[in-house]
Design goal:
By secondary structure, the chain is mostly helical. Helices cover 72% and strands 4% of the residues.
Length: 286
Amino acid sequence: MKRILFLVTILQSYLFQNCSRLDLIDYSPKISPKAFLESQHFINIKLGDLEFVLSQPVSSLIVYFVSFYTIYVGFLFLKDLKNQKSRLWWGVGLLLTGIGAVFAGTSYQAFGYEIKCAGKEFCSWTSTWEIIYEIFTGPGMNAFLIASAYSNTTGNFRKSIIYYAIINTALYVGLNLYGAVVPIQFFVSFEFLMAVSTPSVLFFIWLYQNSYTKNKDVMSLYLRNSWIVLILVIVAYVVYMILGITQSLWKNGIWFSENDVLHVGMIYWIYYIHKNLVNKVKDVSI
């Protein structure tokens, strides 16, 4: 954990020094700080001399809950490794994605106005906080990929998966940082993260289904189902967004967005992992 916190400090220092050009990426069409606040629920908070805007308070509560729940389940894997590398990498993956989600919730929800709008003529589209979220989440997905190599493959196939995960991580982080410095909007977008992660998720389902078909083992069944759950969550998020349900509800004072759909679904995903995988993941016998 200390190493992760040190990495966060280094990333923040680098990004704040080199990614000021992120402010050049505006919303399209541009949005003023006033319009940003008028489009959502927010609370003005004053604590002595400190005064700030808390954006989307309900959404912030949900995303912080799923963040720390993910970190907690990651620690459950790490504290009882049982000399299994698959458990180590499941723990690393959950820890990275959980920490990343803290940064995402801070910039996308809780302090979005303060980070991207306060004191500006127009709001910025993204921030260094969101870059750090992506830099943790992308490698987190590849940690799950390495975990699958140890739990369900052997030999050269295992080595190939691990090499792919390492190369994929290096390329994703490199392009993400390049996109932040230049800047290039697509390379720092959630869509780019999804494009890089989706092949791995589909691979998980194929791999675990194949293992379950051959061995009829409960672990592979639960592993397969966990990723099916995640796909269903993402589909619900996309459908909710395409149908414009967020805007319809917000107009009526119901502050539940597509991001809330994603995060509530993520809570169930982590609960499924907590309940069914924490005590079952192990390396495949060679």
